[in-house]
Write a structure and sequence with these properties.
This protein has four helices and four strands. By secondary structure, it is an alpha+beta fold. Helix 2 runs antiparallel to helix 3. It is elongated. The model has no long low-confidence stretch (mean pLDDT 87).
């Protein structure tokens, strides 16, 4: 009987499939997860850029913060349409002149004095050049595939700066 059992191949394919299928599914879902991760990061990067451009073209960035948040989340300034990234729901877009975390905009003033030797300024413009930098710092929720292989949860830290030109 032991001799017959050794030569029996009736279930070999099922055992091989049971060994190979988890690896194949992990590869398949891993590729899907990485694709979704890069797509979402690109969408958030585009959203942050659009918000920075909008704020850079207003005289009062704090007053346009809600419009910039809607532009970042929905792709439209009035908030109509679907979300660019389904899981991203930033709260208020804070506009500050100091350090910030989360989804925020930093307004920086850079002196632009006239050079005594050349009589020229470093940049075209007035005595002060303002820049607007919008930042987003968030954690990607994902599907859980990355955690299965021990990669942890990725964080997105995206920023975009524009020179403020006002209206």
């Amino acid at each position: 009987m032991l001799h017959t059992l050794r030569r029996d191949e009736d279930g070999a394919a099922m055992v091989e499939a049971a060994v190979v299928m988890p690896v194949l599914f992990l590869l398949l879902f891993g590729a899907f997860e990485f694709s979704k991760l890069y797509l979402d990061r690109h969408a958030i990067q585009t959203a942050v850029r659009d918000a920075a451009r909008l704020l850079a073209r207003t005289d009062d960035p704090a007053a346009a913060a809600e419009q910039a948040r809607r532009l970042a989340v929905f792709g439209t300034a009035d908030g109509s349409g679907t979300r660019r990234v389904s899981w991203w729901n930033p709260g208020v877009l804070t506009v500050t002149t100091g350090a910030c975390t989360g989804f925020c905009a930093v307004v920086t003033s850079i002196p632009n004095p006239i050079d005594a030797v050349t009589g020229e300024r470093s940049w075209r413009g007035g005595d002060v050049i303002r820049t607007i930098e919008v930042r987003a710092d968030l954690t990607y929720p994902g599907l859980g595939t990355l955690g299965l292989v021990g990669l942890g949860t990725p964080r997105f830290r995206v920023s975009h700066a524009e020179r403020a030109i006002g209206e």
